[in-house]
Amino acid sequence: MLELINLGHRYPGADSPALQGIDLQLQPGQCLGLLGSNGAGKTTLLSLLAGVLPLQQGEIRWHGERSLGLVPQQLAFYAELKVRENLELFADLYRLRGAERTRRLELCIAICALQDKLPRRAARLSGGEQRRLNFAIGLLQPARLYLFDEATVGVDAASRQRLLNAVEQLTAEGHGVIYTSHYLDEVERVAQRIVLLHEGRVRLDLDSRQLLGDEHGLLLEWQDEEPAGLRALLSRLQLSAEALPRGLRIANLGAVQLLEITRFLSEQAQPPRLLRFGRPSLEQLYLRLNGGRL
Amino acid sequence: MRLRALVRKEFLLLLRDPHALAVLFIMPTLFLILMAGAMSNYLQDKPPALRVTLTSPQSSPYSEFFGAALAAQLPGSDLRGTTDTRSARISLPEDFAESLLEQNPHALVLSFPPQLDKLSREHLRGAVRVALAQTRLLAFLEDSGALAGDLPLAERLQLIQQRTRSPVEERELLASGDLSGRANASQLSVPAWLIFGMFFVALPMAGAFQREQQSGALLRLRALDLNLGLLTLSKLLPYLSINLLQFALLLGIGVYGLPLLGLQGLSLPGSPLAYVLLAISLTLATCSLGLLLAALARSAEQALLLGGGINIILAALGGIMVPKSVMPEIMGRLAEVSPMSWALDAFLTLLVGQGTLTDIAPYCIRLLLLAAVFGGGGWLLFRRRVLQTQWTNH
After folding, report:
1. Cross-chain Cβ contact B390/A52 below 8 Å
2. Does B217 sit within 8 Å of A43, measured CB to CB?
3. Minimal Cα–Cα distance from B295 to chain A, Å?
4. Nearest residue, CB atoms, A72 vs list B8, B211, B216
5. What is the CATH number of domain A2-211?
6. pLDDT tens, position by position, B111-124
7. Interface TM-score (ipTM) > 0.90
8. Could you tell me the pTM of the whole model?
9. A47 and B222 in contact by Cβ < 8 A?
10. Where do the structural domains in chain A lie, given as residue ranges?
11. Are B335 and B317 in contact (CB under 8 A)?
12. Taking a C-beta distance cutoff of 8 angstroms, is the pair A28, A144 a contact?
């Protein structure tokens, strides 16, 4: 659907480029979670894709027609217009007509729960309602690729679930999605692929299941001291462990190994203070990968 | 479809902005009515009515004649001898009757109250000189036996008036330029505040653009690959229409509204085409200034301050606030830099000088050139601003 080839950008007067050597491909039906700390280059990348910044270096190659839906972080609507007037205005600008126009308007209004808000001026909506309107206007546009930038900030839990469902629905229907958010649980939920930007470069580009699946492990924390004999057991089971201030993280262990360790622990006079098995959240992974910066 | 939607949006935003509507319609209407009322005495076509107290130590036929001759020179004025301190006082000398035929008669004393304006003073001076000359002529004629001394007062006055009447035919020459000195209150205040109000269209125009950019709505428009010419046109069309509406409405108030308030109404002589040409030239100039301001300001607040400041300076310079006829020569020349002055001169050429389309063409050409320069520069800067609109983080 979309191919970025050696994409780069440097702002006038900047010492270093905001983006350099970005090579990415996005397939139809794929949601790419774009992560990175402030200044990593996410906004620059989105601006280049949206055509808001001029292309300086590299190429953005669309396979097929370029069509883009946009939910920016800014509240990109007219505060003094009513909710319905805003939606109608953008429907006109998106050149929506007839039954398709009606269908899309009704769908976006329903997804963003704006039915009761239509006659109200956008300026008089609550912060969360304004976010939903911003989301609805982006979703209204018939597009092949949708860009979401912090689209759910300030939205209540129930509405957030509806909006995330809508993003999942888009990918299910074969649309491409680039999703960036500081709520990493959202990215973990909607994205099939995680791209981590750092200082304008792609630091990590992995399938999210692969990224999170590889890290299944056991986390242990002791009340007093580590039980004697545990290290020997881990060595026998051919497992490596990462030392934590008051415990251990044991990565990549299977069912038999897990059973052996839990049997060993149950025989100890003092059980561990904490025992957690599973995969870490994207947030934990991200903090480790990104040096503790969100 | 897109242009229609964008134009409709601009109209809706303007209708929802009470401050903009007040600046565009209520402010110039109030100024127009208030200033037409305030200047109606000063700039009226008929001489001002005065209150005059005439005192004479000795009553004589000549002092009576002087009073009657003075009353004839000051129609509508109150010449009853009162002690009102706000009235002008004329004190005849003690030997008024005796000294009329002397070469150097004793002076008559004319006292003005402090609040009496210059025009009224000049009017009273002229009336006193004529009445005194007529009284001296009467004394001479009676002394020389050319006129019987026992005629009634009214008859004497009539005879003297006949002998001193000079046939003068006044004609107004067709003229163009600064005719503010000849304009009456409505001829001056209606076009002046109409022009002032029309120039204020730049404020909501620039403010709406700043809000659009700051909100991120412009970012969406940019991502839509909207033609920049279309976007600019969508900003200009609503405000061009608003300007034309202001022009028609405020002229209408001048013609039909002012008489309802007891003020002198405006008449619109000349060809309607001349007014149409002036309206279009003025509208293009004001909207091009709005476009330039939209591109230069960095916030709605800055647009308000910058636009308001520019308009007030242009108005002060251009004879909107103070008629150019009362300005010193250097200020009058300085006024020529203000486009408000060009528009006002064009209006006065039509309203006062009975000018034609050809007479106002030079002013309209200046306004259109200004529109081309401001509009061209404004469009380039506006285009740059739109292209610089960036995706921002908060």
Report:
1. yes
2. no
3. 18
4. B216
5. 3.40.50.300
6. 998 888 777 888 89
7. no
8. 0.73
9. no
10. 2-211, 216-278
11. yes
12. yes
